[in-house]
Design a protein that fits this description.
Layout lengths: L6 E4 L2 E4 L4 E7 L14 H14 L3 E5 L12 H17 L3 E5 L3 H9 L4 E4 L6 H8 L4 E5 L20 H21 L4 E2 L2 E2 L7 E2 L5 E2 L22 H4 L22 H14 L15 H22 L6 E4 L8 H9 L1 H5 L6 E2 L5 H7 L8 H14 L3 E4 L2 H15 L4 E9 L4 H12 L5 E6 L2 E4 L10 E10 L3 H14 L17 E7 L20 H7 L6 H7 L14 E6 L2
Parallel strand pairs: 3-4, 3-14, 4-5, 5-6, 6-7, 7-12, 13-14
Antiparallel strand pairs: 1-2, 8-9, 10-11, 15-18, 15-19, 16-18, 17-18, 17-20
Helix pairs in contact: 1-2, 2-3, 9-11
Length: 577
């Protein structure tokens, strides 16, 4: 299950998996398969990314090149132009940003702009990409993109004959036929090598072999494609070649050398292929063993390659790559084997959102209408051990997950809420807020600090504040808990309208400071609270609830100022809760 001990270190962030994490899809492209063009404008993309954070996304995956079947490759300069303003803006708001790219130049630029994760659709088969990530601290997602069907096998007709003479005659005929074939075979050479010669594998520093991504594998026998006898450009391309990076000066045109694009075109044709009645299968799905050997073997090999190159194990996440070179049947087989992939020990991603196989099993043709079916597939993956779910509809899936998790997984977590008031009966307001917090569903108050008086912070021309910190245990998601706190503020008379000063007088102020295992960015909520380290009226009450809060929050990545440099200094004690 998702509540395991795995952690994923992504730059300055560390994600735990006591809950499944939601990755929101943000395609800054004109041609993505389900939302192409909707967020192509950078401002629209930034606004949508912030909206996904406020809806419950833990990670935003930003991509500037569509990899749908039949996609047009994009050169790195154009891809960078699309994604970098979006990455920079979201990272500034505290978001964990993933850059979805196969180009090392784009990955480098995005990490410099604040991206914490590199999501490589080609599975880090480019040694230059491996060389880059080993020198950074970002998280990495190793994805399998390639055909998983075993090559077609041909069998010679076997004829039994007990006659020794017939046996000898048959052998003689076979030898003569073989000699004729050898005499007719042309000596085809390319660059001094026979065409059948294997391509040397790339080597990384230290002698580690970098395997090629399984592009260009043979088509499966059960699902042949009716093609003309004259081979197409894709069929004539060399098999099993490593993916090439499009040069910066190259125009955004489809090239025979782009093996990912060629593989995705073959994948689309395989889905549409007609199965003749002579090749009907006896079973509903293909055998899982050869498929999983290829998928899990590739993911394991690439993860080990990264580790040997110097990438720590806790930075690596794996993704079986649904839809990339796979038929609907093969994708279902892979999803049913989620538990086996989770057993590899790396955080596991489920990235099935709106994919073709989801439409096949649900009967929904339009990609954008497949969200409900996506949720069902994701639930099955979560139950089998998936840790991260990559979805387009973050709002819907966050509601779906919160409802399921509240019933299926009892999981109280510790959190701290700061309480302040400088209007009316200050201490009574704080005690009323405490009692109302205790009535929030799936939440209890476990401890309270004393009530302190402090100087006003930020807006100094106002009355002194009464402040306290309440320790709670809750099973609610952070954004759901925040909504409940905002309801309490409204009920106690807090004015949050635009005419009210942001840091002015208030009957009650409730801030969610920290929650166990949660990191969050966005306009609506930041966790840990970004201003904890400078607020004396928060850090002093916290000393009643924990030993050395300054050290605790520094360990959690918060910059904590020295007492003399803080704002809202404590000037006295007003009593107990």
């Amino acid at each position: 299950m998702a509540n395991d001990s795995k952690t994923w270190r992504c730059g300055k962030y560390e994600l735990s998996f006591d809950r499944p994490r939601i990755m929101g899809v943000l395609n800054v492209t004109p041609d993505s398969f389900s939302d192409g063009g909707e967020h192509f404008d950078p401002d629209a993309a930034i606004e949508y990314g912030l909206a996904m954070l406020d809806a419950g996304a833990d990670i935003i995956d930003v991509g500037g090149e569509s990899t749908r079947p039949g996609f047009t490759p994009v050169n790195p300069d154009e891809e960078a132009r699309r994604v970098l303003p979006v990455v920079r803006a979201l990272a500034k708001e505290g978001a964990i940003v993933s850059i979805d790219t196969r180009h090392v130049a784009v990955a480098k630029a995005a990490v410099r702009c604040g991206a914490s994760i590199v999501n490589d659709v080609t599975g880090f088969t480019d040694p230059k990409m491996v060389e880059f990530v080993k020198t950074s601290t970002c998280g990495v997602i190793v994805m399998h993109a390639g055909e998983v069907a075993a090559p077609a096998r041909t069998h010679a007709t076997v004829q039994l004959d007990t006659s020794a003479a017939a046996f000898v005659a048959e052998k003689a005929r076979e030898a003569a036929a073989e000699a004729a074939r050898e005499a007719e075979k042309p000596a085809r050479r390319r660059r001094g090598k026979l065409l059948g010669d294997p391509k040397p594998e790339a080597k990384l520093p230290g002698g580690v072999v970098q395997p090629s991504l399984p592009f260009g594998e043979s088509e499966p026998a059960p699902e042949p494609v009716d093609e003309p006898e004259t081979p197409t450009a894709e069929q004539a391309a060399p098999a099993a070649a490593a993916p090439e990076i499009v040069p910066a000066a190259t125009e955004a045109t489809t090239e025979p050398s782009d093996h990912l694009a060629a593989m995705m075109r073959r994948s689309a044709r395989r889905e549409e292929a007609y199965v003749p009645t002579s090749q009907l299968r006896r079973f509903t799905l293909p055998d899982s063993a050869p498929i999983m050997r290829r998928v899990m073997g590739f993911l394991s090999d690439q993860a080990r390659t990264l580790i040997h190159a110097g990438v720590s194990r806790d930075r690596i996440c794996i993704d079986p790559g649904p839809g990339f070179g796979k038929t609907a049947n093969e994708d279902i087989v892979i999803q049913r084997e989620t538990a086996k992939m989770a057993s590899l020990g790396y955080p596991l991603m489920c990235a099935v959102s709106r994919k073709r196989f989801v439409g096949a099993v649900s009967g929904v043709t339009e990609a954008a209408a497949r969200d409900a079916a996506t949720f069902g597939v994701c639930l099955g993956a979560i139950q089998a051990g998936a840790n991260i779910v990559r979805v387009h509809d973050v709002t819907g899936f966050a509601q779906f997950l919160n409802g399921y998790w509240a019933v299926a997984k009892p999981q109280p977590r510790r959190a701290f809420v700061a309480v302040g008031s400088n209007l009316g009966h200050r201490c009574d307001n704080i005690r009323a807020a405490r009692d109302m917090i205790a009535e929030i569903p799936l939440t209890c108050v476990s401890n309270c600090s004393r009530i302190y008086e402090s100087e006003p912070a930020y807006e100094t021309r106002q009355d002194a504040f009464a402040n306290a910190v309440i320790e709670i245990k809750t099973e609610l998601a952070p954004l759901v808990l925040l909504d409940e706190l905002m309801k309490i503020e409204a009920e106690l008379g807090r004015d949050r309208s635009k005419k009210a000063k942001a840091n002015g007088p208030r009957t009650i102020d409730l801030d969610l400071l920290w929650m166990d295992g949660e990191t969050h960015g966005g306009k609506k909520l930041r966790l840990p609270h970004p201003l904890i380290g400078e607020r004396d009226f928060v850090l002093v009450p916290l000393e009643d609830l924990m030993h050395d809060p300054a050290r605790f929050f520094r360990y959690n990545g918060v910059e904590v100022k020295e007492p003399e440099d803080r704002v809202g200094h404590i000037v006295g004690e007003l009593g107990r809760m």
